[in-house]
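RETRY 2/3 - previous attempt timed out on the joint model. Re-submitting the same 729-residue input unchanged.
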Amino acid sequence: MDERLRAVLCLLLILLAAGSGGLADAADLKNTIRNLYGGQGILVEPLPLPFPSQEARFQASSLQGLDQLNSQLTSAIGVPSFNSSVTGFTFDVERGVPVRTTESLGPLLTERATTLGAGKLDLTFSYTRVNFTKLQGKNLKDLELVFLRDDANGNGIRDTSGPFSFESDVIRARLNVDLTEDIFALIATYGLTREWDVGLVVPVTHVRLIATAHAAIFDQFGNPGGTKFGDILIHRFGPNSSQPDASGGGEETGLGDIILRTKYNFLRGHDNVIPDLAFLVELKLPTGSEERLLGTGGTNLTGILVASKTYAQWFTPHVNLGYEIDTKDTRESAIRYALGLDARVLPELTIAAGLIGRAKPDGTGTGDHIVDLSLGVKWNPVKSLILRTNVQIPLDKNSGLRADFIPTVGIEYIF
Amino acid sequence: MPILTGRVALLLSIVWLLVAAASLPLPGEAANVVALKSADVDVYNDALDGFKSVAGRAQVSEYDMEGDLQRGRRFLARLKSGPKPDLIFAIGIWALQVVIEEIRDIPVVFAMVLNPSAVIGPEPRNITGASMNVPIEQQIALLKKTSPHVRRIGAVYDPSKTGFLVKQAERIARDQGVRLLAKAIVSPKDSFAALDAMQGEIDALWILPDVTVLAPESVQYMLLFAFRNKIALLGLSENQARMGALFGLSFGSGVDIGSQAGEMANEILSGRRAEEIPFTTARKLKLTVNLKTAGKLGLQIPKEILDRADVVIR
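RETRY 2/3 succeeded.
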């Protein structure tokens, strides 16, 4: 059987296997934070008669706070971008021979204008580990939410003195969020013609989200326990209230959002100055369960203009600029840009570096502009086999949901 | 007896002709051509396109060696074990190398090979093709046209790589009324002394398609030498012109070289023997002129050259 046909059949089998995993029962991992404290917010212990009940006074505030954090976390878990590989030859006019170019990018980096070549099939299997550590610059292991209570006497303010000074009591919840993603991706690229590639990315994702919280009540001066009426604490946890300690979450594995991609290299080798140009279109499909945090739940369409040029047959800078439309939530639509280079430092070894950025013009305030540094190495030990590794380092950890670094390893074979 | 011998000879001739005719594709029957490509590069694909556009009668099957000589050898071994094609089209030097090693009884046409004589050797083989060499006549003529003072053209070369080319060039230069002063080297570092020995002796310098000469340090020294001595330097590519050579002259079209090979294939498939067809050089050329360099050398480039230039660096 033809090697390429075999490879395609393997790919289809993997797709089927991954797809069947993705259709399993959907747990509500997405609402882990929201569902802490039972999903109804924090209720305090009802006061004994004749005092009016205060049990639901923190409910709205806590629900809102938990909701907000939940949204911030889950909307920021995106699908990493994957580049298609470009390996092959350039032609040395002076010597009259092809020159092997392990022209590479890191697996999560930018694109080059050149394509794979007619009839070529590139299969890459990669593994990426994302251990999120920061949300908007705050440590995920020590997040603090402060819930305010509502107005009791109807005067429109939280009294800080007098009989209603208990209105200024607060609940502080400290959260420890353990959020990791393991992404196993199969990336296939096929050269339809010399200038036109099509491909797809099939990610199978394992997500772990475990959240624990401890809530405590303080008065306006920061004293634990809150305001007392005589010996009675106005706000307290008890057998009939929410419990101060809560936890939730779990792990999910399944098919992530499949990406279909095509690249057309409309200008190549024009002269020694004008770069090679290509247009890349990506369609991200909502194949991953949003509830299980395996996908974003929306369809995204991206168009990117790619420019690159190889100098002295070993050094290739490249620039990408495009726009990604999030059809589910247009506020998540983003300008995508990248500036990178790769250099063939040895005949079989290529290093790659780049800046990769994403800016949301109408963003929600979480991760509206993120920039990562990506460093990668490709090694071509034997013909057609390439080993690749890459690390993505967030340059600004105060924006969005971020990891300290994101390592990727991969193996690639060209048929 | 002589009559009998004559009849036997006639009979044998007829049998030979029948066998030869049987080995040719029948009229209307598509000839089976295997195209072996050294690697997947644009110019090779262009050459294949050019070949197909001309060799219309042929059914062309393609195989890409992907730059791997072993892969090419394995493919040819498989090819030999099955029905033999009518012709092999070898694209690029690596394909030609493995075909020379493996194939004896199938006619071969090559394309996009630089200095094919050095690859094939002097022994007559059932091989012909379209090289990517630029005709020597045109290179010498270009340097001559640059200035009427150009009477002596210098070059360095490695006899093991381009000795045959220099012999041809010496003859052609003589025919054009100029003298070729060629200094032999065996390693790139020899080029420094070879060039220094030509100081004041030459009016123009010519970079030959010779891998020993094309070492970066040699090319750099030739550029420096040309600037110091204010003489024209003819390079092999646009790239060398951009580096500072006055001219870069290279083949202009992979498609056209493929077409040349296709024309040869048609002749062979019509019954002509490959060794009867001489190798060709590139018909379409790409000329780059660096006017910045011309200014520094104090040279006025004739309009005739500028009109012909494909790229002018200003």
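Residues 17-24 of chain B have pLDDT under 50 and may be disordered. Closing ticket.
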